[in-house]
Amino acid sequence: MAEQAGVSKDAALSLATLRPAKGSRPKRVRIGRGHGSGMVKTGGEGGKGQTVRSGGGKGPAFEGGQTPWARRLPQRRGVSQKARDIGHFRTFLTVVDVNVLLDWPVDVVITPQTLREAGIVKQVRDGVKLLGRLIEGERLPQGLRCEDILFSASARETLAAAGAHLPDAAA
């Protein structure tokens, strides 16, 4: 069999003839062999002290030895924290286009929960806001009622023109 495949009996597979595939074992880097090797002086290890240690270096809040911003914070009275971190102070609204209300049943009040139950909204974050105008030639059902929903100016006009009952507070 071995001779048919073009391999002689002398070169039969044995532990002594096993070799790794070509390129699978790269040649090791020889450090400290002159400037032409590119591995001189520290030999790829970096400097001494802080830079050579695992996890060494300065953190993202390091300010060159000056008292860090987070420790100076209590003295900065009157400065708004709203610009500091998006997640803590900002409100995230789920936006919905008024065109999704074309087939909405009139007897069901439009609330964030009913929009979620109808599958129009996946998650209600800090509230729901209706946006936009209708598609040309489309009409909303008469007498829609909305609760706990914010509106853009154009959506408010569109809903008011369709005779919807809207809360008094402007969005």
What do you see in this structure?
With 171 residues, the chain is low in regular secondary structure. Helix content is 13%, strand content 6%. The chain has a three-stranded parallel sheet. The longest helix is centred in the C-terminal third of the chain and has 9 residues, at 153-161. It starts with 68 loop residues before the first helix and ends in a 10-residue tail after the last helix. The mean pLDDT is 83.
Indicate the radius of gyration in whole angstroms: 35 Å
Which second-level CATH architecture of the domain at 94-161 applies?
A: Ribosomal Protein L15, Chain: K, domain 2
| Terminal residue distance | 84 Å
Main-sheet strand order equals 1-2-3
Number of alpha- plus pi-helical segments: 4
Query: Beta-strand level of the residues, as a percent range?
Result: 5-15%
| Fraction of helical residues | 10-25%
What would the average pLDDT be, to the nearest integer?
A: 83
Top-tier CATH class of the domain at 94-161? Alpha Beta
Approximate shape? elongated
**Low-confidence runs of at least 5 consecutive residues:** none
What kind of sheet is the major sheet? 3 strands, parallel
Output the helix-strand order.
Answer: HHEHEEH
Number of strands: 3
Pairing-aware structural class of the strands and helices?
Answer: little secondary structure
The fold-level CATH name of the domain at 94-161 is: Ribosomal Protein L15, Chain: K, domain 2
